[in-house]
Write a structure and sequence with these properties.
About 70% of the residues lie in helices and about 0% in strands. The protein has eight helices and no strands. It has one domain (about 1-35, about 85-180). The longest helix has 29 residues, at about 1-30. With about 190 residues, it is mainly α.
Length: about 190
């Protein structure tokens, strides 16, 4: 029983550090909240708005980015009522998601202590102004989503499935999702 309480205490400490790292990530981005949107953000937003007004992607308006990024900007623009200032809020939310996902993955792969260090480093580096961490650019947005996809990949690789079934699971089978908890190490 003593070991369970030590493990539980260590896990709680990790989630406290994750929460503080998310707050750090938001605070570091907050100082750039009032700066004008970047060229990337403005371009994605202009294309998303043109698309919302009937233009056809990759024919009438061209960008060399995937549709998912433009869908995100289009939905965000609609949900925010067209507020360009809200783009910084999107960067803060996805920055927080990146920190949490990094913590979940590192915790599952390496352990509590490594997860605590990883989220602190992720929060500081991913929100650094010199790297345009305050901007809702393709790197930040796709990085946050990719980290969650990495969890599924870890689940497939760690399972006892045959190679053929791992490939099928990787292509979209729900078998892997049923076999794994929603967040490794939490279920």
């Amino acid at each position: 029983m003593r070991q369970d309480s030590v493990v539980g205490s260590d896990g709680r400490r990790t989630w406290i550090v994750v929460a503080l790292s998310v707050a750090l990530s938001v605070v570091m981005r907050l100082r750039m909240f009032w700066s004008p949107i970047s060229v990337d953000e403005g371009g994605y937003l202009a294309i998303a708005r043109a698309w919302a007004h009937g233009r056809v992607l990759y024919r009438d308006v061209f960008v060399d980015r995937p549709q998912g990024l433009l869908v995100l900007f289009r939905v965000w623009d609609w949900a925010s009522g067209g507020s360009t200032a809200s783009i910084r809020v999107m960067a803060m939310l996805f920055g927080g998601l990146l920190v949490v996902s990094t913590g979940v993955i590192v915790r599952a792969l390496v352990g509590e202590s490594a997860a605590r260090w990883a989220v602190i480093i992720c929060a500081v580096v991913s929100s650094a102004p010199v790297l345009e961490g305050y901007a809702a650019n393709g790197e930040l947005l796709s990085g946050a989503v990719e980290r969650n996809g990495s969890r599924e990949s870890m689940c497939i690789c760690a399972s006892d499935l045959s190679v053929a079934r791992r490939i099928a699971a990787g292509l979209g089978s729900s078998r892997c999702q049923r076999r794994c908890p929603p967040y490794p190490g939490l279920g």
